[in-house]
Amino acid sequence: MKVHLSVCKVTDIDFESLLQKGKSVFLFDFDNTISFWKSSEIPKDIVQLFELLKSRGAMIFIVSNGRSRKLNYEIPAIWRAMKPLTWKVKLKLRNFLREKDKVVVVGDQLFTDVLFGNLLGAYTIKVEPLDLKREFLSTKILRFFERLVFGRVRKNSEKEH
């Protein structure tokens, strides 16, 4: 599994650099990536980030396995996306995913978000989850395996640099 970049939180990502490298389609996980689990609130700093990306011509989408909800910010979203499977997202966003080298996937889980990004052929960014206490039981179990795998992934990516 390939993690291109690992950061603490979404606002730690150097989006300016990504834009300069030709990245223009950003797929963000929602729960525990940009906001807390089951929340409908996109924090102000993330809204500002989205506005900056949009002002630079980027396309931004929420791609979440969570339930549909009304957000405090207007943004196209694919709920119940069934990540890491890609067919639903490919079906809905096919016009935006044609040039894989322009696509960035940002999420907090290896086995859903990063694997999904790898299957799309996108640039993947792993962020630390916002809150580990409030998650599905299945997510908590996957986190255990993530810690095992991510240590290995991190070591391999360090060898490449």
How is this structure best described in words?
The structure is a single chain. With 161 residues, the protein is an alpha/beta fold. The C terminus is likely disordered. The protein has one domain: Rossmann fold (3-Layer(aba) Sandwich). Helices cover 37% and strands 15% of the residues. A six-stranded parallel β-sheet has the order 1-6-5-2-3-4.
Termini gap? 16 Å
**Mean pLDDT figure:** 86
Q: List low-pLDDT spans.
A: 155-161
Counted beta strands: 6
Percentage of residues in strands: 5-15%
Radius of gyration over C-alpha positions, nearest whole angstrom: 15 Å
The shape is: globular
Please summarize the sheet with the most strands: 6 strands, parallel
Helix residue percentage: 25-40%
A few lines on this structure:
With 161 residues, the protein is an alpha/beta fold. It has helices at residues 15-20, 44-55, 87-93, 110-120, 137-160, and strands at 5-7, 25-28, 59-63, 77-78, 103-107, 123-127.
Give the SSE map.
Layout: E1 5-7, H1 15-20, E2 25-28, H2 44-55, E3 59-63, E4 77-78, H3 87-93, E5 103-107, H4 110-120, E6 123-127, H5 137-160
Parallel strand pairs: 1-6, 2-3, 2-5, 3-4, 5-6
